[in-house]
Structures are given as C-alpha cells and as structure tokens.
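U., I forgot to send this yesterday:
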Amino acid sequence: MPPARQASRRIARPNDAKRSARWFVSPETILLALFAVWLVVCVAFYSSNGGGGATTTTAGGDANRLRRPGKRTDTAGVDAEPFPEHYLTFSTACSPSQNWQSFLVFYYAHKVKQPGYVVRIASGCTEPQKEELRKVHEQVISKLSPKFSVHFTPDYAKISGDNYKYYNKPFGLNHWLDNGLKYTERRQELEDAIIMILDPDMILLRPLTYDFTDSNVIIHHSKKGPPAVRKVAHGQPWASLYAFGDGPFRVDLQHVFANHTDSPALKATKEEQANNYPGGPPYMATGRDMYAIVRAWCELVPRVHEVYQHLLGEMYGWSLAAAHLGLPHTLAESFMISAVDIGSGEGWALIDALGDDEICEFSTLKEKEDKLPYVIHYCQNYWLGKWFVGKYRLDSDFLKCDKPLLLEPPKEIGKQFDFYIKPGGDPYGEKVKLHKSSIKREEFMVCQMIKRLNDAATWYKQQTCERGTANLEKSFIFHHSLDPDNNEGGEKKAKW
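Result:
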C-alpha cells in the first residue's frame, strides 16, 4: 500500500483515541493532517505523470522510443503520446524558378497547417541573391509562419571536378544539420525529432507527420512487412517508393564501397534491394537516423557519381547509404502523385477513387484532405484538350503585380476530352490520344495545379503589391485559343 494511503488510514481511524487515554486529537489537527496528506498525494501523482516538462517515452522498445517537447491530450482528457518536433527541409539553388517553387512549398505548408519548422536550404547564392531572399522572408514568408526560414550554403556542385548540381542535396543538408540546426551540439534534444526532405517542386496536400496510425497511406509490400507501429521511429525511416527498383545495387558497388568492404549494403538480399531501398522524397527519419544517413550519403555519393553519371544518381547514393547503415525503409506508394501514366507506386488509386464532382474541387478541409495523397510532385506536364499546366512553361516572374492569373477550367472537363494538344507540339495542333485511365488523373492535375497556383499568387500579390495594382484577372492560357480545332497562331511562345 502506498505510504500516503497508509498515513491517511492511520490518521482517519477513530479508535486510535480509545486505545490510549493519553492521546487527544482536536478536530482542527485532524483537518490539518488530512490536508497535508491530500497535498502529498497530489504532488506524487503530478510527478509520476511527468509534470509539465519534456518526457522520455520508452514503451515498446527502442523502435518506439521518442523524446517529445510536450504532451498532447486526447478527446477523453487522457494524456496521449507527446508529439515530436518536425523539420521539413528542401534543397534549392537561387534561380528565379526555384524561388517561386519555394514560395509554394511555404504557402501550402501554411495552408495545410504543417507542424514544426520548414527550411529552404539554398546553395550557391550570390550576395545580392542572399540579400533579396532575406528581404522576401522578412517581408512575406514570415507572415505565413515565424518557423519558416532559409539557410544558405556554399555551392557543392563542383566538388568532384565536374558540375553535378545534385551534390547540393546531401551536402547542403549536411551543412544545415551542422551549422543551422547544430545537431551535434543539441544531439540529446534533436535525436528524436522528425526530419523530412522534400523536393522544391512539391506541394503539400495535407500535413505530413511521423504518425500514420490512422492514415490511408498505402505501404509497399516487402518480405519485411509493414511496421508493427505505423510511425517514423529510430531504425524505421520512411520514404516514397520510386520506380528505379534495385538500380542502386547494379552500379559498381566494389568501387562505391572500396573503403567499406564489409558493408551491410553488399549483403542486402535482392528482395531488400527491390522493396526496402528504392525510396525518394519525401524522406522521413528521426534526427538520429537522418544525421547518420546524411553523413554516409555525403561520403558515398561522389563515389556513386564516378560510376553512374545519370539522373537520380544522388538518390542512388541515399539508398546505398541507408543500406550501408542497415536502415531498410518503409516505402509508401501513396506519399505522392506525379506521373499520371505510371503503372503503380504512386497514390493514383486515391485519385481514381474520388467522385467526379471532387476532381476539380480545391479544398483544404480535413475531411477532404484525408482522401488525398500527401504531396503533388509537379515535375511533369499535365494536359487535357488544350488545358495545360507545366512548371517549365511558367514564367519565373508570374508572381509580379502586373501578371494575370491563370484561367481556371470548369468542372468535369474530363468528360469533354480524351486527348491533349501540346503547347509546343510538332506539328502544332496534333491531338494525342489519352489512355482511359489517365483522363481523370490529368483532369485532377490540371484543375488542382491551376487553382493552387492562382491561390498562392493571389496571396503573394496581396502582400507585395500597392493597393489597386495587383492583376487578379484569371485569364492566361498556354495556347492562343482553347478551341481544339482552332490552331491559328501556332505555338504560343509567351509564358505566363
């Protein structure tokens, strides 16, 4: 029996006074003693529940141990698992095109209420570019959240003698971990945080957090199986499934691991190579795992580049770094959507399941978000009839006050067209037939991207343009005419 309860029983027993005539306890003394016992019990209970400060939760072993900055309370008033700090990062250059892409990342992180910090890691900026970006963050981005920031790094593109711009992803992140986040100095505080890596051409459709317990996320099948606890945890990083399969393990591994001849990566099974390591952004890991992967990534990626000088080389480096550390990933098939005609591995099943009236609906209501993938990766062209959107045809200064917004398509355009006409087609005006399964997906991307670009541009202009000078007319199209049978004027050279 707890000592406090024993004390209360000793004080409360009325027969004690009869057992000794020498004892006399006044009512005031009894009340004072009861108050003291009540105070002791309250303090003991408060302390056993962690007080109000940070706690360490160790239930379920190391895979589920995460130190949190504070506790949440569920709807029943019961303390739930404390929530970890989140850091969403993305790597960019300082080009005008990546400036507007970065703004979209920040804007939609704000729009969907993404928890934690969002950090743009900008590499190779000139001093005037840095000054301009600082100004934009102070005057515009900071209005979205004080937790949104930019971190500047050197340009790492030429570290191996050639010009490989994707070195800036691992080395820029490493620079931020050391000099921005100061991970080694704050290791105890940060090892249990959640760190994510996105690409700059990604738009959040819903908050991305470490906990997928109640999510509709589709987990890629592997022999390892889905995690017992559907959360990012130590030893359990997550990533989006990419279609390169075991490609990283088909490069010259003897060269890549010349300094690590006993690397676990050399012992990975074919099944693990194909189903636990072909991952890409969004990458998600605890601070401890992310720091270790990034360190190994920076060591291995130049050696990968020496034997594989192609697109996705830096992603191969990530996969091999994770395998070297024995950190197989939980790969999600529905983190993102990107290529409408991909066979599998992206979240198109969620889009296919939407009702026809939902495809062109732009909403950030939770009940709508929960039906969607987590991000749009708009690295492709999207088209239906003459409706079109593509990042390479967007004018880099489309956020300027005098630029019009995009004309928005009507609902159910998927019922009007089963083909598309390229803005730069040769010959111009050729109708390219769409596969039946792609029509709904093209409609979703055209509608969602145009409406989301307009929404972000409208907010930006409202912050930066003098009263009455913002052009909010929704009128720009990428053809001279939306009539598929009217091809006068040929290709429209003018960008948005």
